[in-house]
Amino acid sequence: MSRTIRRLIALLAASVVTLGVGAGPALALAGYQRLIKEASPWAYWQLADPGGATVAADSSGNGRAGTYASCVSLGEPGPIRDNPATAALLGSELGCYMTYSSSSAYSGSYSVEGWAMPSSTTKSYQTIFDTRAVDGEFSMDVGLGGTPAPEGQGFGVDIGDGSEWLTNPFIPWLFKAHKWFYFAVTVNAATRVATIYINGGSVDRIMLPNYGLPPLLTDGNHPIVLGGNPRYDYPSNPAPGNFDGLIGQVAVYEYALSPGQVAAHYAAGGQPAAAPTASPIITGITFNGSVSSPTITVTGTGFGKTPPEGTSDANTGCGDHRRGNGDVYGTNGLWFLDDTKVWQAGYSNSSGGNCIGLIIESWTTTQVMFGFGVAYDSFDHWYAAFGDHYVIDLKGWYEGGLVSYPQARSHRALARHRRQQPA
User: Fold this and answer.
1) 43 touches 251 (CB < 8 A)
2) CA distances from 417 to 56, 196, 201, 398, 422 (A)
3) Which domains does the chain have, with CATH numbers?
4) Which of 218, 207, 38 is CA-nearest to residue 112?
5) Which of helix, strand or coil describes residue 264?
6) Greatest distance between any 2 Cα atoms in the chain
7) Which residues are CB-neighbours of 263 under 8 A, at least 6 positions away?
8) What is the DSSP secondary structure assignment for residue 20, as one 8-state letter?
9) Helix 259-268 and helix 24-38: axis angle, to 10°?
10) Residue 195 to residues 113, 191, 201, 208: CA-CA distances in angstroms?
C-alpha cells in the first residue's frame, strides 16, 4: 500500500470521528441551545453549571443569573438526548432550590418551559417552577401531584394576577419516575388564554377571567424558584412541595410561545413525540329563546352517542333550587361560563356543584342542546345577556364567542382547544 493511500485512509478515518461520534453531542447541544436562544427568552437557566457552582448561569444573555442553595447537586445527566449538558438535582431536601429575585415586576403574557425527571410518583406534591414564595401569593407555579394526593397523579398549574387566582387546572397524568418529560405553560394576556403542554402536545387550554389585572409572573415579593415551593416547604408540613428529582433547560419568555415553537423545542430534545388522542370538535354555537330562558345548541363532531354522566345539582348555598335545577358534570363534561359576569353553570369539582345546573335536552354525536336549571331565573343579574363573552366546555373542547339572540348563527371561535392526555 502506497504512502499516499495510507495517508488518505488516515484522513478519512479522522473525518469520520470528527463528523460522526465525536461531534454528535456538540451538534445536539448547539442545536437545542440555538433554537431556544432564537426564541429570545427573558431568562434561560440550563442548570448545567459545574459541580460546586453557586451561580446558575443565564444563557439568554440578559444577565438574570440565579443562585443555587448549597445542597443542590450539579453535574447530573441532562434531558437532551446526545447532549453533554447536565442537569441539577433540586429539592431532594427542603430548601434545595435555584432562586432568582427580579429587580422589577413583570406582568402580562409569558411562557415557562423546561424538562423535569421526578424520582418518585408517590410524593404528594412536587413543585417544579414557583413564584409564590413565602410572602407572595396569586402568581404562578407548576408541579406534579402524586398518588397520595386527593386528585391522584397529574400535572398542575396555578396562574394568578397578584390579587386572585385566575385558574388552577390539574391534568390527570400517570407520569413515570426516573423518566424525563418536557413541559410548557403559555399565557396570552391579550386573548386571556392559557395553554398547557406536556411532551410537545397541548393537554389543556383555558379561558382566563379578567378581574382588571394582567397575569403576574414575578416581582419583588414573588421570586422565581426552581425545585420547590418556599411557602409550604417547612419541616412540620406533612406534604411539602419540594421537587425530588432532576430539572434542566428552563426558559422563561415575555410572550406566549406558539404551538409550533413548543413542538419544535420538544422535538429538538430528541425525545419521542406524544401520540395525539381523539377529542370532540365544536364548529358552531347558537342561542335561541330569550335572555331569561335560553336554549343553546352546539354543533360539531365527536361528541359521542351519550352525554357525560352528571349528578343532580343539590347545592343549597345559593338557595333551595334542587327541583328542576339540572345536573353538574365535572370539569371535563359540559359546563358554561359567562366570562363577562364571571359565573359558571354545570360545573363541579371536589367541593361540589355551583348554583346553576344544566338540563340536556338532546345529545347526538354531532349536536347537543341544553338549557339552564331553575336557579338561573333566580339570578337575573347573571343572565347571559346579548354581547356577553362566554365559553363552553364540551368533553374537553373549549369554544367561546359573544352571546347573540334570537336568531341562530354560526360564528368564528374566540377560543378553542383540544384537551389530550399526555403520553
Assistant:
1) yes
2) 36, 11, 11, 5, 15
3) 24-268 (2.60.120.200), 281-402 (no CATH)
4) 218
5) helix
6) 100
7) 200, 201
8) T
9) 160
10) 12, 11, 10, 10
CA–CA distance, 266 with 113 (Å, rounded to integer): 10
The answer to whether the CB of 210 falls within 8 A of the CB of 197 is: no
Q: Which of 231, 211, 227 is nearest to 160 (CA)?
A: 211
- 143 forms beta bridges with 127, 156
Give the position of cell 423535569. Answer: 116
Coil, strand or helix at 323: coil
Whether the CA torsion 122, 125, 130, 135 is positive or negative: it is: negative
**Three-class HEC string of 94-146:** CCCCEEECCCCCEECCEEEEEEEEECCCCCCEEEEEECCCCCCCCCEEEEEEC
Between CA 326 and CA 281 the distance in angstroms is 24
> C-alpha dihedral over 346, 333, 385, 361, to 10 degrees?
-80
The HSE-up count of residue 153 (CA atoms within 13 Å, CB side) is: 12
pLDDT in tens, 33-73: 999 999 999 999 999 999 999 999 999 999 999 999 999 99
The residues that bridge with 397 in the sheet, in sequence order, are 394
Vertex 141, ends 65 and 422: CA angle to 5°? Answer: 110
The residue with cell 426558559 is: 251
This prediction's pTM? 0.66
CA distances from 383 to 41, 174, 212, 345, 389 (A): 43, 40, 21, 11, 12
Cα–Cα distance for residue pair 371/125, rounded to 1 Å? 39
Look at residues 24, 26, 48 and name the one whose alpha carbon lies nearest to residue 251. Answer: 48
Q: Does the bond joining 406 to the residue before it have cis omega, within 30 degrees of 0?
A: yes
For residue 199, the one-letter residue type is N
Q: What's residue 12's pLDDT?
A: 36
The confidence band for 335, taking pLDDT boundaries of 50, 70 and 90, is confident
Pairing of strands 87-90, 73-76: antiparallel
How would you classify the pairing of strands 154-160 and 125-130?
unpaired
- Rounded distance, CA 321 to CA 328, Å? 13
- Above 70 in pLDDT, residue 159? yes
